[in-house]
Amino acid sequence: MMIIREILVEPQAIAWLPWAVSYFFFIGLAFSCVLVGLLIHKVEKNVQHELMAIAIALSCTIVAPIALTADLHQPSRIVHFYLHLTPWSWMAWGAIFLPLFTMAVIGYFLCLLRQAIPQQYLPQFLHFLYWGKLNIVRWTTIFRMFAFVSALSILVYTTMEVFVVEARPLWHHAWLMPLILFSVLPSACLLCRFLITRFSQQNGTSYFSILTFFSLMICIGGVLGVYFTSEQTALQLTQLWQMSALPLLVVLTLSGLLVGLWFTQPLWLQGLMVLLALALTWLMRWILLIEVQRLAKYNALINPYQLTWHIDGVMGILSVFSLWLCLGIVLWWGFSTALTALHFSGGKQ
């Protein structure tokens, strides 16, 4: 007697929505711009250039937690992390690391303002920075160290938040942290170089191109490392390539960046390179978070996902980027007079 058994399989819903991609995108820009700011301090000792990098980090630091809150759907869940601390949960640690990182970036930014721009050029509401007789150089050094440690903690937290899902081979591997870091570092380098060139009219930032090149090489090496990690990761990377055109876009974007780095770049080409780098950062995070969720986890099906125009889709993405653009305009409006007057060549130490 033969027994026939039917196995019914249902597609699984996508758990992490584009809000999570926005969070990973902006928090990555935030901690990588902090690292670039520290690099500027180490190489150039130029407080004004360092200030530009930290200003970008500040805008991203404000936007990223908002996207994360939207991804949690319920703001009360954030309060729950503090009322019921669970040390075994990386999200609970993130509820501690994120506020500390925000405080570090804000303090870092204010110290650089105090050190780089004279009081008469600052907006009226920032004149409190000149109260008292603080050793501002010492405080800037303290906040540099605080921001560096906080940036590393955020890098570890965002990586482990994905790494702990052992059921996803493309999340649970040793190459995850290098991919997260070196897929966003080119965006931070090229964006900082573009703004420095735009406002200071200086082209002595060739080390940005070198760091961008090595970051792209490590990013490519990380993808190859994931492919050769195991048969499962190789199979799932092949499935990603077959079911989506996004990996091909990543290859084209990487190629465009590598080719563009070899040419002497006028300002318009630097702007194009920034857009390509930001596109690479976004595509890598979209593939990592959204496309990987479409792969089979406990079943034998490709889980369906369709990007909609609702608030959990395109409208949410546009709203977060619009907020970032708005913050950039506010920062420019608040400090354009000071930066124009200084031409990045003065400032009170």
UniProtKB/TrEMBL annotation:
Q: Which domain of life is it from?
A: Bacteria
Q: Which Pfam families match?
A: NrfD (PF03916)
Record-annotated membrane-spanning stretches: 20-39, 51-70, 90-113, 134-155, 175-196, 208-228, 240-264, 271-289, 309-335
The keyword Membrane appears for this protein: yes
The primary site where this protein sits is membrane
Q: Which UniProt keywords apply?
A: Cell membrane, Membrane, Transmembrane, Transmembrane helix
**Where does the protein end up?**
Cell membrane
Membrane topology per the record?
A: Multi-pass membrane protein
Gene3D superfamilies noted in UniProt: Formate dehydrogenase/DMSO reductase domain (1.20.1630.10)
Is the Transmembrane keyword given for this protein? yes
Q: Which family does it belong to?
A: Belongs to the NrfD family.
The name under which this protein is listed is Polysulfide reductase NrfD
Tell me the organism. Answer: Bisgaard Taxon 45
